[in-house]
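for the writeup, i need someone to sanity check this before i put it in the appendix. the sequnce is what the collaborator sent (i think, or maybe the updated version? ugh). structure was predicted straight from it, no edits. if anything looks off just tell me and ill rerun, i have time this weekend
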Amino acid sequence: MTARGAALLLAPMPLVAAGAANTALYTVGLLLLAVAAVIIVVDGRRAPGSQRLSARRAHDPILSAGVRNPITVEVALAGAVARGVVRDEAPPGIADGGSQCRGTIPATLQYGVTPAARGEIAFGRTVARVEGPWRLGWRQTALGRPETARVDADLSAVRMYDALARRGQLAELGVRTARTSAEGSEFDRIREATPDDPPRSINWAATARTGRLMATELIPERAQPVVVCLDHGRLMGVGAGRLTKLDLAINAAVLLAHVALRTGDRAGCFGFADDVSVMLAPRAGASQLRRILDAMRPLRSGETEANYDRAFTVFSHWQTRRSLAVIFTDVLDADQSRALLMQCLRLRRRHLPLVVTVRDPALDAAARRAPRTAEDAYARAVANGLLADRDDALRLLRTSGINTVDADATTLSPRLVNRYLELKRRARV
């Protein structure tokens, strides 16, 4: 019943109230009340139902975790335009405004959902409450069917990287692409020498042949293995903003794999916690990124600590060719970092390990917050203690010659890509 219908239903109530002194007024009031109720019911029955209404929900086949995913719902009506309310049954807690609108039908809803983790989210049906032609009653109809949408790693950075690379504007993403001459170890071309070329790049045979000073240009070696090693133990399940450290690591790993594949290298995936869970051999080609996403999909943070000894013993037997091993993990204290350090030193005999850790912005904020109460002072002391232990652990790795990247969610991906490109320029991979 609409507001107008409620007003019509209440109109006879003064007569009913006056019926306490006059039985005739009471009878007339009840009769008018019954007529008003029948009119409202009839108007509601005349409102469009499921035979004339239809709804269609549109979104990406795979949603991205941690970012806003646009959802569009179109409600169609056969025949004349009607008025009413349309509400899409979006997953609770992750939908922003716009999943409900009031006005004319046909209608289009546009809103967004921001999933907090990879996995699946469930949408319900689209509910339309349509007024009758007299706008006294309404009919509510559930349209469409419930559906489940898959949530995967955030691919928006990959799409942005491709778009900016096409325009030559990767600096907007924080990626440095400058390249010096005569870098790398793989032959690219012979060209005329420039004053900036080092003497070792001069190609004397080509110079004698052409009569002009010629130089050999080298590029970083291609088709090198880049293996993303994902720790999905207990510490990686800690939140670091909207997402857990594991989900943030996966987002950065996907972008790194995409850049490596575009550069001509081969990318693979290795997952571990207390035991090895994923081993995807490095391959080249655009289709490898989808294989990496599929391999990462079941990874969830567990209740156990990462067993570095077990994981990298398996890694060393599995990956025999020299590769860049990008280890996404978290370090909490010196004891844990020593276990990681020992395995990185062993890996370094054949591979190039790069340890990547994700900073928790809430912990950084707690360490900087001025205390106002005793509880605030205690929280600040605990946060500073945890950060000091973490910094000591990372310092131990760096002083031992292990490459590290420690960044928060906003800078992790560009800093990681820059470090990879720097290692390529220096022919370390």
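Residues 178-182 have pLDDT under 50 and may be disordered. The chain has four domains: 3-46, 53-152, 156-160+170-176+222-425, 186-219.
thx in advance!!
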